[in-house]
Input
Amino acid sequence: MTHTEPAPKPEREPSKEVLDDNARKFIVESLDDAVLENETTQYLLVTDWLEMGSDDEKKLAYKKFANGEVQILLISKVMGEQGRVSQKEKIGEGEYAQLPEGAIRHVEKVRHELSYVQDNVSFELKYDVFENSELRVLEVDADTDDDRAAFNPDDFSGELSEVTGDLRYYGYRIGDVLAN
Output
């Protein structure tokens, strides 16, 4: 499969901090290009699912940044009482190459990560552009549940439809949406 490289853009340092997976999710119908002109980290994200269950998954996340840096994570996610909980382990390219082939599901996208402030509340945004699809997804996260809830999609520079809680847009299930 061909990997589409993101075009070089000014960017922040690749983020090493990973937020929890309880962010609000939106389908993006349209987005003002000015949003992505802000300081952003952009990278190719290739995800290969090794195990998929109704409440858990195990996957490889291969990130290639415009500056050539590569990060590879082995990620396990489990549904808990307070949402999805992740365990992440960085692995090297040599270890990645030795892993068995034959992923159950494969998804490629270009991800843009940026900070955004609305009504004096700071948010971390992840905007995903999926390969060979018109689907665009925006994840909105903040430090607390109250801050997350304070995000107003009507005040954002784009047309958004909320899909938070719709399991089709979580984890490996996104592959089913992309296939339709």
In short: The helical segments are 33-36, 93-98, 145-150, 174-179. Strands lie at 24-31, 40-52, 56-65, 70-80, 83-91, 105-118, 121-130, 136-141, 158-162.
